[in-house]
Amino acid sequence: MVGNRAVSRLVQRYAIYRGGPNTLNNYTPRPRKEGQNDDVTGPKKGLSTFESFAAATLRASKAQIIETDNLGGELTAVRNGVGPQDTHVSILPTNDGNDEKLFAWAAAKMGDKTDHAYSRAVRAARTGEQAK
Amino acid sequence: MTEAQQGVLPAKLEHLRPRDKGDIERASQLIDIGYPDNAEALPLMFTWLADGNWPIAGPAADYLSRLGWAVLPHVRSVLSSQDEQWVYWVLDLVVRRFPNDLIAELEPNLRALAEAPSGEEVDLLARDILAGVD
């Protein structure tokens, strides 16, 4: 930690957990909408996951297990939780300094019609499902 | 209620709107005002459940599920929306934790969801909740 800010670090060779169903829509970040929160803003931007199964299912009934090594070179898992209790990990496009790739990914979120290469890459990195 | 209306806050509370999905500090301050003083913020709090993995979803789920009858109209509003991921999370994080009498109030909504095939497993979740009170 530096002051109140977490030092982000890459997550490699770890399982991470995303609450919810095994669907492409659930593997796609939310785009910006007026008056609402999204996955393209703030220090935890990107697809939200957790390093800890307990954190992912603290309230959710189940979580998808994603092996970070399986994400491939197009996506990167970054642990950006603040402090030991906050195990938040963002899945982000690699080399995306201006967030263009993240915005394009989020723009592809269209319910059950969602189909984006990054969403498929997250699904391909899934190794299983765990219920609470 | 439209999506835009969901995000509206009265001016006196606007400074407590979370800046992003990780802004638990402002989210908690808005919650801590307490009901009914924060009643106008309830629709906004439901939008924090659009993705149950968001850091602000946790405190919102704990709070809204405890409010019970006061949030029923807002729950019904979400359950009738076309955003299946949002419906999934409100079912999983709020409705699932309701006492049986509140779930019984929502039975027509839950039955409709249970009978409609869903790519986001909303139908499975609705069935699961109904089975829990049968």
Note down, in words, how this protein is organized.
The complex is a heterodimer of chains A (132) and B (134). By secondary structure, chain A is α+β, with helices and mostly antiparallel strands. Chain A has one domain. Chain A has 3 helices and 7 strands; from the N terminus they run βββαβββααβ. In chain A, a hairpin with an 8-residue loop joins strand 5 and strand 6. The radius of gyration of chain A is 14 Å and the shape is globular. The model of chain A has no long low-confidence stretch (mean pLDDT 90). Chain B has 134 residues and is an all-alpha fold. Chain B has a single domain, classed as Domain of unknown function DUF5071 (Serine Threonine Protein Phosphatase 5, Tetratricopeptide repeat, Alpha Horseshoe), CATH 1.25.40.750. In chain B, helix 6 runs parallel beside helix 9 and helix 8 crosses helix 9. Chain B is globular, with a radius of gyration of 14 Å. Classes of the chains: A alpha+beta (132), B mainly alpha (134). The interface between A and B is large, with 33 and 39 residues.
